[in-house]
Amino acid sequence: MIISINNLNDMRLLDLIVKSVRAEGRKIGLTSGCYDLPHKMHHFYLERCRRVLGEGGVLVVGLDSDRLVRLVKGPHRPQIHEGDRAELINTFAATDIVFIMDSLDDFRRMARILEPVIFRNEDIPVEEVVGKEFAQEIEVIPDVHLMSSTTEIIESIRNKPATSEA
């Protein structure tokens, strides 16, 4: 499900989901990323988050807006529009809810609402995790850096020699 954090009806629905999940003793997880060009590393990372949550857990994914991706990655990114990226990440079996975030404050707001397990990769020190004050716990998902990053994939495509068809 894709929600808008600026839509009152979406936030009411999220509130109902959170209350239901908590009443049943299940966990809620929260993570985020650019997901600029969704690939197997993203799938692998989200699957690992899902496993940590356990049976019946709900994984919420914050997806960086196009504006935020440009701020972080530069003027030629993202490769795929935020709406399309949200749709792709939403199709991953590990993902339950996707929202587009335009700032780190949007992530902090979701952390406050969800009081989740916050997932991060090893690149971000725990003391720098946004919203950590609202987290039930912080889980670092290891070994994600061993796979190709979106930047590496884009560079590989750019550097690949053109082939001529006969």
* Helical content band: 40-55%
CATH superfamily: HUPs
Number of strands: 6
Q: Assess the beta-strand content as a share of residues.
A: 15-25%
Distance between the termini: 46 Å
Order of helices and strands: EHEHEHHEHEEH
Strand order of the largest sheet: 1-4-3-2-5-6
Main sheet makeup: 6 strands, parallel
- What's the shape? globular
Instruction: Give the averaged pLDDT, no decimals.
Output: 88
Q: Any idea what the CATH architecture is?
A: 3-Layer(aba) Sandwich
Q: Which regions contain 5 or more consecutive residues with pLDDT less than 50? A: none
In CATH, the topology is named Rossmann fold
Total count of domains: 1
Please give the count of helices: 6
Reading off the top of the CATH hierarchy, the class is best stated as Alpha Beta
> What is the radius of gyration?
17 Å
Q: Give the structural class.
A: alpha/beta
How would you describe this protein?
The protein contains six helices and six strands, in the order βαβαβααβαββα. By secondary structure, it is α/β, with parallel strands linked by helices. It has one domain (2-158): Rossmann fold (3-Layer(aba) Sandwich). The protein has helices at residues 8-23, 40-53, 66-73, 82-91, 104-114, 150-159, and strands spanning 2-3, 28-33, 58-64, 97-101, 117-121, 137-141. It is globular and about 60 Å long. Helix 2 (40-53) links the parallel strand 2 and strand 3 (58-64).
